[in-house]
Structures are given as structure tokens and as C-alpha cells.
Amino acid sequence: MVNGGRVNNWYCINFAQHIQDSVALNLHQELAQTCQSSGMEFALDFVIPPIFARPKQVGRALKAHYHSAMSILYKQQKELDLLIVILTDINDSLFGKLLFMFFLIIANLFISSCVIVHY
Asked: Which segments cross the bilayer (predicted)?
């Protein structure tokens, strides 16, 4: 990739209860390294550490952690580039709630794809 994209500020929320924190962390590291090897500028460090939240807490978790990340970035006069959300399985109601919360809380982010992890 020539003049690839840039992701400096990002974090992740894991709603998949069966995915261990270490597995989710490894997924994030592999994603960052793959993007870097493809020509992107991709920061290896998160704005805030990866977070596990129960699927029933979608709204509360998304809102609280988004505000935590933005309070850090606001002080640095930066914006959030990427938020990764790991969902449990194909769960239309969880996905629907997640989309709804994105539009209420994070209206300026664009959702381009979803990663569903099966182990």
C-alpha cells in the first residue's frame, strides 16, 4: 500500500464472553502488525486498554469507555480513529443495540465492518 491510512488513536471493547482477554489482546496486536506490514501507520498502543463488557451492558460500556477515551484524547487535541468491537456470535439483537448506541453516542464514527470471532 502506498500512502496508506493512519490509525493513531484506537481502543477495543470485547463483548464475547468466551474470548479470553489474552486472545483478544493477541487479535489486536496481530491486526496492528498486519496493517503496518501493509503500509499503514498503525499505533500499537491503545488509547485505553482493551475492555471486556457483558453483552447486556452494551450501552453503558460503550458510553463510559468512549467518554474515558475521549477525555484523554481531548486533552491532547486528538480524535478517535478506530473503535474495534468484538461480538460474541451472530446476535442480531446485540448488533442492533450496538448500532443504535453508536448513532446516539458516537455519531461521527463510521462502521465499516464487523469481526465475529469463533474459537
From this structure: 98-118
What digits encode the pLDDT tens for the residues 61-118?
888 888 899 999 999 999 888 888 887 665 556 666 666 666 655 655 555 455 555 5
Burial category of 42 from C-beta neighbours within 10 Å (exposed 0-12, middle 13-18, buried 19 and up):
buried
Beta-carbon contacts of 71 under 8 Å, excluding residues fewer than 6 positions away, are none
Task: Bin 8: left if φ > 0, else alpha if -120 < ψ < 50, else beta.
Answer: alpha
pTM, two decimals, is 0.72
Read off the amino acid at residue 104: L
pLDDT higher than 70, residue 3: no
- Domains, the chain, in order of start with CATH, read 6-116 (3.40.50.2300)
